[in-house]
């Protein structure tokens, strides 16, 4: 098959739009969750995104971790991203519906999906889901690694299920057609939320625990349940894909292949959890890594498998050719053009139609 992605739909179900080489950028800081006012969306960022062939990216905004008032911080982040898209309107467009994804591809723009990696900003006010939906938030992940008011993250020792408030939040997300994302959730929270949801749910960025037994990876039971209800599973480009922490492109392919075997080819895609623009100076980046890993641990936000001697990305699957290289590797695996197109973006697009509408 041709690896020219022009005209196709490529969706990164969790990614970062940023130039990590800029001093002020948060993504220069070893896997810290991104915030809009710490991003550098410059000419290189935009040129690299266009060159990669990506159609849409689910970007993390709002409160995820740290000493911020969750609701107020999230509203500021929404304002920040609205301003970013206005400033770069020739290159970027806000995605609210599945049709917007197709339109972004037609116009050769980069679609920006507003997504949260923590429902903490809801606090004890489930009616806030309506506010977020009105602002164009398309994805809300229930928990980050730690516990919150709706359930347990994958690192919470209790492995509680969905709380009563969590059930109400899932109901509101369904009502307002916002994706219920179960990445980072604990196993019981994931299973119970998937069963409680009246709409298909997603695990936008994960790996397969059957291959590497780490909490950030999902069990076959979780993967199978999400897929059986018409949901979506995105495989990340993260160190958790290999027990050594030094994940390679071949590990990404193995986890995709396992997910396809468990979920079926119509329910698997990608959520890289990283930038398109590659870090230029890996030696300098490595020098900062220990400090940033320690900071996440001190905040109680890190996951098992985060270490100072491993990069929080896949070294040989980064930069502007990452999606084309993945397509090449999947083709070498024997996957058909149609299956590769599903994995690169068509499956997320189909899932978006089911939740957001066309």
UniProtKB/TrEMBL annotation:
Gene Ontology molecular functions: metallodipeptidase activity
GO process terms (BP): proteolysis
Top-level taxonomic group: Bacteria
Pfam families, per the entry: Peptidase_M19 (PF01244)
InterPro entries in UniProt: Metal_Hydrolase, Pept_M19
Name of protein: Peptidase M19
Organism (species): Nonomuraea terrae
